[in-house]
Amino acid sequence: QKEVEQNSGPLSVPEGAIASLNCTYSDRGSQSFFWYRQYSGKSPELIMSIYSNGDKEDGRFTAQLNKASQYVSLLIRDSQPSDSATYLCAGGSRSGAGSYQLTFGKGTKLSVIP
Amino acid sequence: EAGVAQSPRYKIIEKRQSVAFWCNPISGHATLYWYQQILGQGPKLLIQFQNNGVVDDSQLPKDRFSAERLKGVDSTLKIQPAKLEDSAVYLCASSLIFGGSYGYTFGSGTRLTVV
């Protein structure tokens, strides 16, 4: 059973601080990882993808991947109130039929306090 | 590029009734997914299509759920009869490349409430 684990939070950070979101996964066959942001009542929106060990930066967002530890994280620098949302971690892997699928964690709710 | 279209946005039905949801993927996207997201949880895959064929329906409750993708474009997900625990948001997603390691784009979802 492929599992992606996240701390459900809520995680509260002051405006301007760094928010750190973490995720672990059970399937060593997972090759790609994604962070989705989901505002209340809205559908998930892809914000970051990472495929190799190390860091990947995009604006205020940095994704980190450590395949040996089966650990993925997302750092949000200079957090803004508009970053308040639930962040979903997803791992991509192939099913038995060879198809590619994403398995999602339950999400971490982030609140940025002005 | 137009996104993934879903309808209706909201639906309220009584238990034991039937309901259907519709999805039109991004033009040219061969792979289509239906996910169920219960409040407070992450999306869970129900069924995956490649063109008009089912690739994976291992987590679809087949005694009450069915889905089709005739002509390999739009898709319909049906629940008959509905149970209270089917209350959730039903998300459709599509991706361009089968087997490719890409994140995919979700539609706006259909929020189902079963009373």
Q: Which regions of chain A are unreliable across 5 or more consecutive residues at pLDDT < 50?
A: none
Stretches of chain B where pLDDT falls below 50 for ≥5 residues?
none
Mean pLDDT across residues of chain A? 93
Number of E-type strands of chain B: 11
Determine the fraction of residues in helical runs of chain A and give it as a percent range.
Answer: under 10%
The sequence of SSEs of chain A as H and E is EEEEEEEEEEE
Number of helices of chain A: 0
Kindly name the structural category of chain B: mainly beta
> Major beta sheet of chain B, specifics?
7 strands, mixed
Tell me roughly what share of residues is in helical segments of chain B: under 10%
Number of strands of chain A: 11
Q: Return the structural class of chain A.
A: mainly beta
How far apart are the first and last residues' alpha carbons of chain A, in Å?
Answer: 40 Å
From the spread of the alpha carbons, the general shape of chain A counts as globular
Reported for the largest beta sheet of chain A, the result is: 6 strands, mixed
**Gyration radius over CA of chain B:** 13 Å
